[in-house]
């Protein structure tokens, strides 16, 4: 009789150990995610506690991005982060002004762009007389993104790609430098739609004939 009770107690002890181990493993698994390796088929635990630190904002680079936008080289946001779109815009501007193509912040480029933003370009590939209207992201049927997936802002315009290829750098009299970045169902032929930040600015612009210089 005594031996039977001893065996029963041993079984209870083993079951309790199994339950404790299972509970501990479940608690540990909440802190990690399990992914299946595509190459070996093995299960790998990846910690989910690690967070990617935000990239530092460079105020000088942010200023350069604004100048690139003001002169029609950069369609993106003024983030102060050297992403691929900013590098491409820097190289494009450096190539245009015959500077060393580093793709990095360059004080010489800043100085050149600051001068460029204040003057009308004297070299262009094509000159067009176009009927211009204005729009904003708040207009009915308009979204926040352009056709080329950039946040709609002043300096980005909608064109007919058959007349002006998307991505072209432009200078528009009465508006300034711009990038052909969007399209519209009503924008056909020699019509162009200029983006503004507010509906009041767009309303004040109205509809008028403008001279558009296609720079590249």
TrEMBL record:
Any one GO molecular-function label of the UniProt entry: hydrolase activity, hydrolyzing O-glycosyl compounds
Keyword Metal-binding tagged: no
Domain 3D: 157-215
SUPFAM superfamilies for this protein: Barwin-like endoglucanases, PGBD-like
GO cellular component: outer membrane
Keywords assigned by UniProt, alphabetized: Signal
Residue ranges constituting the Peptidoglycan binding-like domain according to the UniProt record: 61-113
Signal sequence, renumbered to the chain: 1-26
GO biological process: peptidoglycan turnover
Annotated protein name in UniProt: 3D (Asp-Asp-Asp) domain-containing protein
Originating organism: Sporomusa malonica
């Amino acid at each position: 009789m005594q031996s039977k009770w001893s065996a029963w107690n041993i079984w209870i002890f083993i079951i309790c150990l199994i339950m404790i181990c299972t509970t501990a493993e479940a608690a540990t698994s909440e802190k990690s995610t399990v992914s299946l390796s595509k190459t070996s088929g093995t299960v790998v635990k990846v910690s989910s506690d690690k967070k990617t630190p935000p990239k530092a904002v460079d105020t000088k680079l942010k200023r350069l991005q604004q100048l690139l936008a003001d002169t029609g080289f950069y369609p993106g946001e003024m983030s102060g982060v050297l992403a691929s779109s900013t590098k491409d815009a820097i190289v494009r501007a450096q190539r245009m002004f015959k500077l060393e193509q580093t793709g990095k912040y360059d004080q010489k480029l800043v100085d050149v762009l600051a001068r460029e933003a204040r003057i009308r370009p004297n070299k262009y590939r094509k000159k067009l007389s176009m009927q211009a209207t204005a729009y904003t992201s708040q207009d009915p049927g308009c979204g926040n993104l352009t056709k080329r997936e950039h946040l709609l802002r002043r300096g980005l315009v909608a064109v007919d790609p058959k007349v002006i290829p998307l991505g072209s750098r432009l200078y528009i009299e009465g508006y300034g430098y711009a990038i052909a970045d969007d399209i519209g169902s009503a924008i056909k032929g020699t019509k162009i739609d200029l983006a503004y930040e507010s509906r009041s600015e767009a309303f004040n612009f109205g509809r008028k004939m403008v001279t558009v210089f296609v720079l590249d």
